[in-house]
Write a structure and sequence with these properties.
By secondary structure, the protein is an alpha+beta fold. The chain has a domain of 144 residues: OmpA-like domain (60s Ribosomal Protein L30, Chain: A, 2-Layer Sandwich). Helix content is 44%, strand content 16%. The chain has 8 helices and 8 strands. The longest helix has 36 residues.
C-alpha cells in the first residue's frame, strides 16, 4: 500500500533553489555599494585636505589657513562650506586681499609636522616657494668648529629626514654647505671652499649609508659667498654657518 504525500518534497526544494542565487546577488550588490561609499568618503577627505591647504592674506598681510580665516570672521569653518561661502561673496565686499592657490605637496606638510613635533624646530628652517623646498639647517647642530664630522645631533636630524626622503623618492636632493666669512687655513681645509664642500659631502655620505640613491643627490660647497645675513656679529655668523638641503621634484621626460 502506498501513501501519497500532499506535496513533492524534492520538487519543492528545486523550486526554491533560486533563493540561493538571489541571496548571492544581493550580497554582491551590498558589497558594491559599500565600496562606492568608502571611495566617496576617501575623495571627500582628499578634497577637505586640499581646502585646508589653501592660504589667504588677511587685512594685516598675514598668511593663514582659509578655514582659520573663515572662523575668525564668524563664518562657517567647515571645509565643504568655506569655499562655497567665499565664492558667493561679492569681491568688493570681501575683506580678503588675495586668495593664494597654495595646495602644497604632501612632503611639505610632512616636513612642517616633523619639524613642529620634534626637537628640530630650533635647528631647521623650512622655506617653500612652489618650485623648491629648502631646508636650512643650523651648522651648530651639525659640526664642531672647523670640523666636517657629523655630530650626534646631526645624525638625529638627518635620520628623521631620511624617512621622508625614502617615502618621496621622486625628489632630487641638492646638499649645499655654507660658512661664515672668517678665514680658515688648516692642513685639511686651506680655505672655506674646502670646508663647506667636505661638510656637504659628509651629509651626502650619511644619506648614502642610509640607503638613499646616490643618483638623486649632489653636494656643493659655497664657502661664505651666499650669506643669509651680514657677518658683522657672532649671531649673524652663526646663522650663515649652515647646510641647506634643497628638494626639487623630478620632471617628467
Amino acid at each position: 500500500m502506498s501513501v501519497k504525500m500532499p506535496f513533492d518534497v524534492e520538487g519543492e526544494d528545486s523550486d526554491k533553489a533560486w533563493i540561493v542565487t538571489f541571496a548571492d546577488m544581493m550580497t554582491l550588490i551590498l558589497v558594491f555599494f559599500i565600496l562606492l561609499y568608502t571611495l566617496s568618503e576617501s575623495e571627500e577627505r582628499a578634497y577637505i585636505e586640499q581646502i585646508a591647504a589653501i592660504k589667504v592674506l588677511d587685512g594685516e598681510g598675514n598668511q593663514i589657513s582659509v578655514i582659520d580665516y573663515a572662523a575668525s570672521q564668524g563664518r562657517n569653518p567647515e571645509p565643504l562650506k568655506v569655499i562655497e561661502d567665499l565664492l558667493g561673496m561679492n569681491p568688493a565686499d570681501s575683506p580678503i586681499d588675495i586668495i593664494i592657490d597654495d595646495t602644497q605637496p604632501a612632503i611639505v606638510s610632512e616636513l612642517e609636522s616633523m619639524i613642529a613635533n620634534t626637537d628640530l624646530a630650533e635647528a631647521v628652517d623650512l622655506i617653500f616657494d612652489g618650485d623648491q623646498i629648502n631646508l636650512q639647517i643650523d651648522g651648530r647642530y651639525l659640526f664642531k668648529s672647523a670640523r666636517a664630522e657629523l655630530k650626534d645631533s646631526a645624525r638625529i636630524i638627518f635620520s628623521n629626514l631620511t624617512v621622508l626622503f625614502r617615502e618621496h623618492s621622486d625628489y632630487r636632493i641638492s646638499i649645499r654647505g655654507h660658512t661664515d666669512d672668517r678665514d680658515i687655513n688648516t692642513v685639511r681645509f686651506p680655505s672655506n671652499w674646502e670646508l663647506s664642500a667636505v661638510r656637504a659631502t659628509s651629509v651626502l655620505r650619511y644619506f648614502i649609508q642610509q640607503g638613499i640613491d646616490p643618483e638623486r643627490m649632489t653636494a656643493t660647497g659655497y664657502a661664505d659667498f651666499i650669506p643669509l645675513v651680514d657677518n658683522e656679529t657672532a649671531q649673524n655668523r652663526a646663522r650663515n654657518r649652515r647646510v641647506e638641503i634643497v628638494l626639487e621634484k623630478e620632471k617628467d621626460n
